[in-house]
Amino acid sequence: MTTTQVGMRCPECARQRTKVKRVRDAASVPQVTYALIAINVIAFIAEGSGVFSISGGASGTVLREGALLGSSEVPGLAAQGVAHGQWWRIITGGFLHENLLHIGFNMWVLYYLGTLLEPALGRLRFGLIYAVSLLTGSLGVLLVSPHSLTVGASGAVFGLMGAAAVEMRARQIPLMQSGVGSLILLNLVISFALPGISWGGHVGGLIGGALAALVIRLGERYRTQALALAGCVLIAGASVAGSLAAAKSSEVEGGGSAPAGLVSPEP
Fold first, then answer.
1. What digits encode the pLDDT tens for the residues 53-99?
2. What's the rounded Cα separation, in Å, for the pair 176 and 49?
3. Is 243 buried (19+), middle (13-18) or exposed (0-12) by CB count in 10 A?
4. Residues whose CB falls within 8 Å of the CB of residue 257, separated by 6 or more in sequence, listed in order
C-alpha cells in the first residue's frame, strides 16, 4: 500500500491520475433551445413576405392553415379548425408568429430561459417541459378564445417561466431576486392589460410548465425517470383530449363576415 494525501491506496491506484472536471465543462450546450429557435424561425420565414413587418398583422396560407383555431363562422374559415379534424393546429400554432416583434420577443425569452434551464435539467427533461407547456397553452386558448386564429410560442415560453419558478423555489433561490418572478409578473400584466392577446394560452402554458417541472422533481425524489416521463405524458395526453373536447364544443357553422384582424397573437 502507498500513503497518499487521501489515505492508503494500492500501488496501481496511486499511479492513476483522476480527471478533474470544472463547472464550466459540466454545463452542456443548450442544443434543444437552439433547435426550437431554429424551427420557429424557419416556420416564420415559410409564412411569406407578409410577416416581415415590425408590428403589422400577418396573413397567408401557412398561417391560415397552421394557426390554432377551434372553429369559426367566418366564410373563409368555415369547416376549418380543430373541431373539424384539423388536430395538428394544436401543435403548429405554437411555431407560427405574426410579425418580427412577435417572434423576436418570444425567441429572446426562449433563449434566456433555455440557457438557464436546459443545462440544469438536461435535454430530455427540458424538451418534455416545452412540449407539455405548448399543449397546455393550446388548451388554454381553445377554452378562452376558440373562434380566433391564434399563433405564437409564448404558451410554451410561459411554461418555461413556470418551470423556472419551480426550480428556483426547489433550490431556495428567491424568485424576485433571480429575475424570473419579475418576468412572470410583467408578462401576466401585459397579457391581461393589452387587448387582442391570448391570455388563455399564457396562463395555460404557465400552469402546464409548472406541473411538468413538479412531476420531474417528483421523479428525481424517487430516483425514477420513468415516473417523470409518465407524468409528463399524462399531462400532455390530458391536454390534447381537453383541446379536442373544447374545440368540438365550440363548433359553429359558417356564414358570418370576416373581421378586420384574423390573428390573435400570443406575444
1. 776 666 778 888 999 999 988 777 888 899 999 999 999 999 999 88
2. 40
3. buried
4. 74, 75
Please tell me the pTM assigned to this model.
0.83
The three cell numbers locating residue 185: 409578473
Residue boundaries of the structural domains of the chain: 29-253
CATH top class, domain 29-253: mainly alpha
Contacts 24+ apart (CB under 8 A), 39-45: 39/95, 40/95, 40/97, 40/103, 40/106, 40/107, 40/110, 40/153, 41/103, 41/107, 43/92, 43/95, 43/96, 43/97, 44/96, 44/97, 44/103
> Which amino acid appears at position 14 of this protein?
A
